[in-house]
Amino acid sequence: MARLKEECGVFGIFNSKDAAALTALGLHALQHRGQEACGIVTFDGLNYYAERRLGLVGDNFTKGKILEKLPGNSAIGHNRYSTSGNNLIKNVQPFFAELHTGGIGIAHNGNLSNARHIRRELVKTGSIFQTTSDTETIVQLIARSKRSNIIDKLIESLFKIQGGYALTILVENKLIGVRDPFGIRPLVIGKLNKSYVLASETCALDIIGAKFVRSVENGEIVVITNNGIESIKPFPKMKERPCIFEYIYFSRPDSIIKNISVYEHRKMLGAELAKESTIETDLIIPVPDSGVPASIGYAEKIKKNVELGIIRNHYVGRTFIEPTQQIRSFGVKLKHNINKSLVKNKSLILIDDSLVRGTTSVKIVKMLYESGAKEVHLKIASPPIKYPDYYGVDTPDQNELLASKLDIEGMRKFISATTLQFLSVEGLYKSMGCEKRNSSYPQFTDHCFTGEYPVEPVDAKEKYFSNDQPSLISKKN
Ligand code: AMP
Questions:
Q1: What does DSSP say about strands 74-80 and 9-14: parallel, antiparallel, or unpaired?
Q2: 357 Cβ below 6 A of ligand 1
Q3: Predicted pLDDT of residue 350
Q4: CA distance 144 to 153
Q5: pLDDT tens digits, residue range 373-430?
Q6: Number of domains in the chain
Q7: Are residues 221 and 283 in the same domain?
Q8: Would you call 245 helix, strand, or coil by DSSP?
Q9: Same domain, yes or no: 344 and 436
Q10: Closest ligand 1 atom to the C-alpha of 359?
Q11: pTM (2 d.p.)
Q12: pLDDT for res 7
């Protein structure tokens, strides 16, 4: 069954004697972006070294043996989240290939919306793919480019791919960072003494004590060498449209986007939700941890307190609850328990950041009633998710999305909540500091809510119209 996936996390560091260890720390800070596999590729001036593992960074890239196998002053790393069937070790990044220009390591956060299409063309003309990942398409395109140097090969390849991508690339004397033309996926630059760092989020800079320099711009390639940073902008200039879901759910609350912490952004989502709401109740409780900042913002707005009516067990590994839908729904109980004495005989507002299939809400609302709650008014600090994603959030099947099947009243009944309210699209944009959504060029990538895709989902359309499908393409992010 299809399920919503988190995105991947990428990291890179140039010119540091502790490159592999710092990369492991950076990946650890980005663990929330993908927990199923992780990997590091290093370069020591002569050779490349690669270690890839299934599981968490902290369980794999610990001191000692594995880090000793990763010598070198530059490194890239990757955290991966995939559907269980495709979580094969061969798909674990970073990928490494020997090209005629030398070795290349590549780590990718995002999803290419035309990878399947390109792959089919490449296979027809002789390319042999080793993995089922869309990222390998980039490697193959670079390998087949007739341009003479690696940067030109990369640029030529970028003009062929579409979708959401933030890349960290390691080639012999360079660390390269790339963001897709819309800047759908995030990538920041940091500096630690003389070393430059690239990371999906600023929380990965904090953990190693690196200073934030700036974000890689949408459509920008940054080439880091011993001479510093060179910026290349091969695409026609356009305004960025970052993925709104980074603000709502993906990024860590302590990461900073555009000078404001994600925590503050989420509080503003909650405050805006409160402005759109009229209900008075005894208690405001968040779904932990995802609904906490929005609940605080909501409560602040109406001058009430937040109470911890649900307690989360932090020792439940995600992989533990993944494999089947049955175990997954059981998993909600493993993860959350009700603070019974607090909720008994109370009418309460329950706040979460988003509603996808409704699995979490159904379970939690049921548990609240079983614990004696009188009324449960569910409020979601983002609009209904009606449309699938193809750029890395990966909600592949529209019919899995509750809001694509039911209207608000239908969803309320399904969840058994007393009332159900979502933040409006207008409220979402207001909370992001925009007066309103620019309908001719929206400020964010928001197709999950609006159905308006910034990049044509070529593969998805082909899937719909064609029977000629290669069967092994993974839905990796
Ligand atoms: P669901 O239970 O399917 O309705 O999913 C909603 C819950 O999943 C909320 O608590 C969200 O915080 C969380 N969530 C939102 N987006 C994602 C995602 N991409 N991957 C995993 N969980 C998510």
A1: antiparallel
A2: yes
A3: 98
A4: 8
A5: 999 999 999 999 999 998 887 665 888 899 999 999 999 999 999 999 999 999 999 9
A6: 2
A7: no
A8: helix
A9: yes
A10: 2
A11: 0.92
A12: 73
